[in-house]
Amino acid sequence: MFDRDESIERVVRELKRPVPSSSDLEARVMARVLAERRLTTRRAVWPIASLAAAAGLAAVLVFGAGAHGKPVAFTLVAPRASSVAIVGDFNDWNPHATPLIRTGSGAWEARVRLAPGQYNYAFVVDGATWVPDPAAPKNAVDDFGSPNSVVTVAGASL
Question: Which fold has domain 23-153?
Answer without folding.
Answer: Immunoglobulin-like (2.60.40)
